[in-house]
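WARN no homologs supplied; continuing
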Amino acid sequence: MSIGNRVYLKRKLPAPELVERFSKLPAANVADCMSRTSALSPEIQLQSSPEKRMCGVALTVKARAGDNLMLHQALNMAQEGDVIILSNEGDRSRAIMGEIMYKYLADFKKVAGIVIDGPIRDLDVLAHEKCPIYATGSTPGGPFKEGPGEVNVPISIGEIAVMPGDIVLGDRDGVIIISKNDAANLIEEAEANAANDSAKVQKASTGSADRSWVDRTLEAKNVEYMDEEYQL
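OK structure emitted
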C-alpha cells in the first residue's frame, strides 16, 4: 500500500436530511453545542460572496506543501453537495487554486463549498462569486503538480481533525466540522440552541436580558471590588 500517495474512492456519508437541517443553522450555535472546540482557525476566512451558508460533506485532500496534484484528483471525484477541504502542511507561499479550478467545482460539479488551508489566487474574480470558498489569503504564486498526497483520508486543518464524510458548516464567522458519527445526536440540541439564541437577541436589544449571572460568577471566583481609582 502506498501510504501517503493514495486515493480512497469511497467514504461513509451522513444522512442527507441531517446535512439539510444543519444547513439552516448558524455555525456559532452548532459550535456552542460541541463545547466550542470544533471551529477552524480564524486564519481560514471566507473569500467569496455567497448568498447562503456553506454546508456539505467533506471530500478530504491531504496535499504536499504548495502542491495541488491531489486536489485535481478531488475535482474529478467531486459530487454535488461535497465540500472540498484540503490540508497543505501549513504552507502559505503558493496559491493552491484559482479561477479555473473554482469554476469547474462551482459551476459544473456544483459543490457546496471549498476550504483551503493555504492561499488562493484570482481573487478579483473569486471575491464576487457565489460558491463559498475559504482560504488563508491570496498570492499570485502558483502551485506545483507533483504530489504525493492523498484523497479521502483523515486530515488536520485549522487545528481541527476532519474525516471523509464529516459535515462541514461555514458562514461569515468561519468554518466548523461536525463529525458524521455525532451529527444525529447533535442536531436537535443545535436547533434548540439556535431558537433560544433568537430569543436572547430580542431580550438584549430591549435591555430585558437577565444579567445577574455576571455578579454570581464573579462572586464565585472571589473577585474583589475596589471603590477607588487605580494608583500607579
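Residues 63 and 149 are 5 Å apart (CA to CA).
OK
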